[in-house]
Structures are given as structure tokens and as C-alpha cells.
What does this fold into?
Amino acid sequence: MMKTKHLKIKLSTLALAIALTGCGADLEPVDGDSIGPRFAAPEFTSPAAETAAAVDEEYSHTFTASDADGDDLTFSAILPDGSWLNFDASTGVLSGTPGSGDKGLSSVTVNVTDGMFNTSENALISVGSGGKPDTAGNLLTNSSFDAGLTDWSEAPGVYVYEHAVPEPTANVYDTGISHPLTLVTGEVYTLSYDAKASAPRPMTAGFGLFHDPWTNNTHTVELTTEWQTYTLMEAAAAGDDNSRTIFDMGGAIPGDISLRNISLIDSAGTNIFDTTPPVGSHYEAYIANAGNPWDVNLSQVMTIIPDAIYVVEFKAKASVARNITVGVGLAHDPWTNAVESVAITTEWVTYFIVVPATAFGDDNSRVLFDMGDEVGDVSLDDITVGIAQ
It folds into this structure.
């Protein structure tokens, strides 16, 4: 949403003010503020218009404004030709019900004037399934972090595994996460990992064969709802090219489990867990102290076409309800961008924004997530970017 102000001073009024001042005329204060006369443009007081509209569902947004001079205000709007939208200048209401033939983007400009000054506000409204416009595909790589943080910026965060265990199971090994790798019998390995659960519960972790007779080295730990680091160091009871790390999460006590910073170090100091693809992981950043939004940033470099309109879709949640900044922009000075603030909750939700790359873009641009200005851990997954069709 962009706001612009245009000066339309009536020369007769301005000339009168200058003449009075030049003649030493006394000018009365206005509302205890500066000495008048005042030339204040009206200001929009309504929140930004909702950018998404769904087919066959009514869309409505009310524009409101105020004027410091107390002048009467008049609204008007510029709508696309043949638009499904209507604007009521007497109430400031923009509304309409789009049909299936209205899918796409509608650019609307709403103006408010006090007779001397004009302020305008632009709204870009997309119509599609659930309001999301169609795109021609995903322009990103490693969108689900199945290759860790490959192709993403050196963000101050890690990839996290999260496994849902909503119901009890008969055996601890009925559900869990395993990563195939090679073990050597008798070799001493150190398994280290961070873990937490949605409720206090046990988990069995270790390493061993990925086939019958399933020989392994394991320990059982008591997880809490806070991240804690656990370590198991033992000589492998058995090993071959079809071995694995073990995180057994079944049993009598349910509760979702999260893992991060997993390593399996051999006696030479090599982390052999790094040879396993982190399939099923997501990105997580930890913000304990608020600062600048860009202090904690996740980005992926991509090509942005100037004046194209982009749809950014993603899954997100946070440790506490909070906002993050999402959009596209240049990956270099002057860092021009188009972003929106998105309010996320403590549960996984899929969000999307529609942003125009107005007058910027090149091969060294990016999709960006700025998270540093509010306290609260942020999780992201399944990020896609496409050009609105």
C-alpha cells in the first residue's frame, strides 16, 4: 500500500496569507498549535485495504480520513475499466463480489481532498482461490529446506525436524525419524542433538543397523517443552553401509517432538550425519532481543523483473504471536523493496502476500523475511515465489 500527497494550493489564499504577514497582521493560533493559517493535507486513518478477494465472496473495505484544519473531506476513486469493484464516495466504502471471470489483479486508487490538498492511497487486490492469484510456478529452490539451508542466506537460524505424535502407540519404534548412513562396528561415535516436546515425555535416541537384527546403541531421555542438548558416546555394537541414526518417538505418552543441531561424530572428528539429507526439516530463527528488522533475515537471491507483481506464499509459526516483514527487493544497495508486515500465530498457518516490484529488479534481487524487530522464535517452511498471472 503506497500513499502519496499532492499539493494543490489555491494561489488566492496563499497570496492573502503572504500579504497579511507582510503587513504585520496578527495571525491567530489554531488549536494551540503553530501560528496560522495552516495548510494541512488530509490523512487516511483507515488500515491498509485487504489485498485478497475470493471468488463469489463479498469484498468490502472502508476508507476513512481526517483533516487537521477541520475541513470537509471529499472521497473519490479510480477503478479499472469494467471492474467488479464499486466505490461509494459518500461512505468511503470499496466493495464488490468477484466472479470466476474476475481472477487476477485490480489496482485501485482512492483520493481524499479538502478542496486544497489531495492525498491518495493505492490498493492492489488479487482475486483467486482463497484470494491468491494464479502464478506460473515457483521461482525458488530448496523451498522446504530439504537440503538444509542450501541456496538460502547465511541466516542466524537452523533447520529443525518436527514430528507429530498425537496419539499413544504400542511400541516406542512405531513412529520416529531415522537417517541412513554408514557405521563401522567398534568405532566410537558421539551423537549430539537438541530436542524439545510439546509436553514432557520420553524419547529413545541412538544409532545402529537399519535392518534385521536391528542391533543398536541407544539411550532414553526425558524431554521438556524447552530446548535441551543431549549426548550419547559409545562404540558401535554393529555397523555397515545400511545403518542409521535413531529417534524413536512412539510409546504410551504422546507429544510432538522437535530436533535440531544433530551431529554424529566419529573418532576422527568427522560429522557423518552431514552426509544425510535433512528431509522433513524447516527453518527456525531465535530472537531473544529486539533490534532492527533486518538484524535477523532469511533471504534467497533470485531474479526480479521490474514492475512485475509477485506472490510470496509460505508456512509460518512463532513461539509467541508476533509480526514479521515479508517481500521482495534488491539484494544490494539501495536495497529497494516491496514488503508487507504479516502477523503470525503460534500454530502453523499458510500465508501469502501480493507485492508489486515497482521500478526495481535485476538478477541480484531476493525474497526476504525480516524478523529481528520483535522477540519470539520464528519457524518458516514451504516458501514459494511466483509472478502473478
About this structure: Residues 123 and 252 are 53 Å apart (CA to CA). The domain at 2-128 is CATH 2.60.40.10 (Immunoglobulin-like). The chain has a mean pLDDT of 87. The chain has one helix and 26 strands.
